[in-house]
Write a structure and sequence with these properties.
The chain has 147 residues and is an alpha+beta fold. The chain contains three helices and eight strands. The strands form two sheets. A six-stranded antiparallel beta sheet has the order 1-2-6-7-8-5. The protein has a two-stranded antiparallel ribbon with strand order 3-4. It starts with 6 loop residues before the first helix and ends in a 12-residue tail after the last strand. GO terms for molecular function: thiolester hydrolase activity.
Length: 147
Amino acid sequence: MSLVLNREQLSDYLVEVFPQVEKDFVIDSLDENSITMRLKVGDRHLRPGGTVSGPSMFGLADVSVYAMILALKGRQSLAVTTGCSMDFMRKPDGANDMIARCSLLKLGKTLAVGDVLMFSEGSVKPVARATMTYSLPPAGSAAAAFG
C-alpha cells in the first residue's frame, strides 16, 4: 500500500487535529512500511527515579500506530484504539528521547493492528513493545468523513 500522506502532510494534519501532539511527538521518518516517531522527553514524562512513565510510553505507541494508519488511509480515517498490550522490558533513560519504530501488521477495512518497539535514544535494546489494535470507521460513514 502506498502513502496517502507524506511526512510533512501527516505532521501538519496531526498538529491540526491534535495540537497537543506538537510539543511531545515528532515524526523522524516515514515510508509505506513503517514510521519512526520520537517522544521529546521532558520532566512531565518522568516518574520518580528518572524513568519515562508508562503512560508516556503508551502515548508514544498510540500516536505512532495512529499516524501510520493516517499515512496510509489519509485524512478521512477516524481510527480509535480498541486494544493495547504492552511489555516493559527495561528501564528507559529519562535523560534521552524515546524512539518508536512502528509497522502495521494488518490494515483492513474495519481493523488495524500495529506493532511498536520503543528505545531510549542511543540504545539498541528495546525498553518496551506494544501491540495496538484500532477500529476503523466503515467507508461512507460520518466518522470516516472526519477531516
